[in-house]
Write a structure and sequence with these properties.
The protein has 1228 residues and is an alpha+beta fold. The chain folds into seven domains: 120 residues, 2-Layer Sandwich (Beta-Lactamase), CATH 3.30.450; 128 residues, PAS domain (Beta-Lactamase); 172 residues, Beta-Lactamase (2-Layer Sandwich), CATH 3.30.450.40; 115 residues, Beta-Lactamase; 124 residues, 2-Layer Sandwich (Beta-Lactamase), CATH 3.30.450; 77 residues, Beta-Lactamase (2-Layer Sandwich), CATH 3.30.450.20; 149 residues, Histidine kinase-like ATPase, C-terminal domain (Heat Shock Protein 90), CATH 3.30.565. 40% of the residues lie in helices and 29% in strands. The chain is built from 35 helices and 46 strands. A hairpin with a 5-residue loop joins strand 6 and strand 7. The radius of gyration is 52 Å and the shape is extended. The two termini are 64 Å apart. 23% of the residues are buried. It is an enzyme of class 2 (transferase). Keywords: Coiled coil, Kinase, Phosphoprotein, Transferase. Its EC number is 2.7.13.3. Pfam families: GAF, HATPase_c, HisKA, PAS_3, PAS_4. One of its GO terms (molecular function) is phosphorelay sensor kinase activity.
Length: 1228
Amino acid sequence: MDFLDETLRAQQLESFQEVIPVAVLYCVPVFQNDQVVDFRFVWGNRTALELSALTSSEFGLMTMLRLFPHFVDTGIFRRYVQAWETGDNQRFERPHPIKDQIRWVDVTVSKKYDGIIITSLDITESKLIQQELERQSELLKTIVEQLPAGLALFQPVRNAAGEINDFRYVLTNTANARNLGLSAEQLTNRNLLEVYPSAGEQGTLGRLKHVLQTGTPIHYELDYKVNGLTLWIEGHMTRVDDTVLLTYLDNTALKQQQKVLQQQADLLQQKNEELHQSNRALMRTNQRLQGLQAIERALHNRNLTGQEPEIAALLHIRELVPCERLAVFRFDDTTGLAQTERWLVGKEMDARTGSGLPSQLFKIEPLLSGNPWIIDHLQPDSAGIPPEMALYQRGFRSLIVIPLFSQEQYIGAFVLMDYKPHFFTEEHLQIAREVASQLAIVLYQQHLSKQLQQHTEQLEQRVAERTREIGQLSALQNAILKHAGQAIVSTDIHGVVQTANPASEKLMGYRVEELIGKVSHVEFASSDSPIPLISYQPREVARPTSELFGAVLATQNYFHSECIAVGKNGEQVPILLVTSTLQDEEGTIIGYVGIATDISAMKAAEEKLQQKNRELNTFFEGALDMHCISDSQGKISKINQAFQAALDYSETELMAIPFLHLIHPDEQKFVFQNLLSGILQRPVRNQINRFRKKDGSYRTIEWNAVGIDNLVYGSARDITERQQAETQLRNVNQRLQLATQAVGQGIWEDDLVTNQLFWDDRMWEMHGMEPGRSDWTLQEYLKMVHPDDLTNFIRRTHLGTPAERITNMSRIIRPDGSIIYLEYNGLLVKNQEGRSVRVIGVAWDVTQRKQAEDALRDSEQRFREIAENVDEVFWIHSVEPFELLYINPAYERVFGIASPHPRGTHAFLETIVEEDQAAVMIEFEKYRQGQEVTIQCRVKGTHRAARWIDIRTFVMKDSQDNPVRYIGIANDITSQKEKERVLQQSLEREQELSKLKSQVVSTASHEFRTPLTTIQTSVDLIHLFLEQPLETAKPSIQKYLKVIEEQILNFTGLLTDMLTIGRIEAGKVTFNPTWVDVLPLCQGVIASHFSHQADRRSVLVSIDDPSCRAYLDEKLMSHVLVNLLSNAFKFSKGDPRLTISSQDRQLIIQVIDEGIGIPAGDLPALFQTFFRAGNTATIQGTGLGLVIARQFVELHGGTLTVQSEENTGSTFTVVLPIEQNSPALKPV
């Protein structure tokens, strides 16, 4: 056939093929040396074009291997060639790439005329389901391995006669293998009797055979003796295909508990009579409790439900104390009246609320003492009753007044009145007092609500004021940023500049617009240079920032260093850079901000200062003044040349002589008592003494000394050489300043005579101010002290205390608005007349320490709030000694006993059940030794039943990896253990469902594709026959139309069965039983379905009682009969028999045939969805009919069973209850 004929035939098929979802294409072989080397595409429907991603014009020019060259390597091309060469249909599955996805297609190849027809059905969804089922199977296998219960899957071992004589382990989990003393690998494929010889016909072997042969699951319990103890095993067997699944669990503890419970039940039976006698009292008490609960609910939910708790209280007491009048009075201190909150007259609320009586009427004994006032028989002249109330005249004879106290305050009264004398009983009084306690809470809550409303209004006013202040502060901050003299630049986390202030233009020469968008770069000029270079580079050429700089910011969130800024023109400017991180509310770093101060002038001054220090050191060593340093005992540690020269001693000699021994003996006592003994507290100024030289002569020396940090710094001068002494003194002062600066302290002096305050550079730096102010006074400084600290700060200065030593700490508000904490130490200096002339001291920044202390307090508070409100038990032990430091309140709830004493670390062991105590003690000793442990155990405590506890411990270590705390957490996992038990019970069902899903998907996919493929092929052939003359083509067309009709009927039947299965599984099958005559029902089914068989076969009916009636659903039972009789006709060649009988109030219907029968190995799975016996492959069927029939029979409370022998025949037996009230009948 040439190409035109092929194209014409393809066009004739196109109209039908375009509308079906199956890809259909027609190919012809391409030959080379009489070998098929390729296939050329001739025609393809719309779906085929979509799969090939070709247009219709491209498709006709394309060959198979040009489009899919990998078909050769994968062997797919060979299967197409085999279909062409042999004429046998080829069917296979293969992956098919479409764009960036992989789809799976089911391919059928058949030879047609001079080419091959290829049909491809997309089965991707079923493939994905299959893969998911495989994944779930692996997951299930993992779960099985972790189960604590023993599990084994057995396969029958048959002898030559086909009889079961043993079972083989096919699958086992670790728990089962461990119980048998073997590994899972050693146990697999071994026989039951080999491992467990005593498992005979009356034991495990017999039960396994019964389950496999009948398909009925078995649940059993066994008891056996081990070392004199009775142990109980609970097992379950169920058939899975041709295997049996066994699971078992040791429930000895449960049996023992059941025995105890039975004993307790007997005891409870004995007490039943006593409980019956107290029933009325309990009901009365319950009524009282319910009323109090209603009052409490109304009290708690008042704002949600609007229910008034006073009304609930009065209505409750009216039910229990049916007096005539109830009233609640609230004392109003402002008016002096007792206001009536609520009146209850009879059973109705009275509207006369708000009326009042003088509250003094209720301020009498015994009410003031909290006791009720009771009048059993009211008289006209009863004491304490105001005449104007006219209670007697209004008919009241009984009265109770109960005082209402809350928070130890007398806030109201509860009044009960009735017309009958002696109306109120002791119980009435008790009930009234119970309700009175609730009413007191109600009145107090109303009082608090009013106060809360007032406080809320005040708070809203304060919030509004605070909002205005925040707005003002924001404007002030913007102004500071704009006019600040320091350069302020912010970047994102990558260093890209986001904002800059005007001062940055002056510092770096960039305009703000130029600077924004550039990347800040930090690097060190060389490896030995400690000063980083800061530059700003375009983003596209920016180099990475130094790792050291990034590491400091990452760990400390703060960087403070002297740097060199590289300006726009390359000029390098020394700056002091402070960089800190910017964080959002969650603490995530979102950028950085840097504040740079031009320190060019400071660097120049520093250079001058260093030069000056060098000069001073030179000057000190060559100075004419005498200088020395000693300890508080006068032992000299350093001395200059002038001192040595002045006294003619060498340095070594002077360091060996105590300072006091250098002074003239006549002056030593005065100097020691008045100067040296307190020199660390009182400096010596301008003291004149005679000092002994080495030759025994004396020099008159004027000397000063001051004690700092247990060292005494002294300077001396010859009276005739005052200039040298002043130089030496300046040198000592300079050394003192260096010493304080080395520890981060600043030196201050308050001259009380001139009212001037002097600071060193460190003090100005700490306060964020430029040094050098000459008008600085204490009064000006007090303006920087935080207002909340000002009073205490003044009280601790010389203005508020006469003490000579001054210690103070305060918050300081710096000019930039930031707040720091400073700590001060000072010394009050007096002149010879005892008048205070100056205060000298040091100060240092303790902000970080205070913040750390505040953070620690907040952290401890949060820890306690969390620990005391969680469900888990949480405790902490110290390491040495091992003592309990903390345990949260959850301990009492979980362990059922009171919290232990700090030294009672073993108290909780008393709550551990006896079986678990040994293991817990072992783990507890490991915990004491610093090991982290995890254990699960049961505790009893005061609980009625044992509860499961999961205990985990941790070790907290310091930076040297030394343990500092042992921490433990315990969770109540009782519910989790219960869920594990439920999960274990559901594993068997899950395994069955998993296997069934896989089988349903595979079978349904095959059964639906088969009729569609047959229909498609028949349609293709009909189109080809249409080209032939009608007379010759008509028989063939009718033949294939008949095939299509049959396949449509098969498809419809399959779809109907699938829908029926779906309704059954969804529980939507309607079950409407009525009384039915059985014989007419069966005759009607035979007449409508089996009376006109083509082979003239018929149903042979036999019945014991023609008048037999049964209570059943006629529609459902008709379906069962049709299915069973259809199978009998289908699988046999003789006349099927239908027998109807009754026995023991049961209806028995049997369908008997002498056909091909059912293989014995297929009988256990016969009623599974889509299952078909192995000898029915050539006979049409879906494998759903018997499944539906059994479901319908079971809806009647009956059974459907089968007896069959291959090549002999089959008997299907339906047994139904006849009675309407049979317990077997189950409604749907």
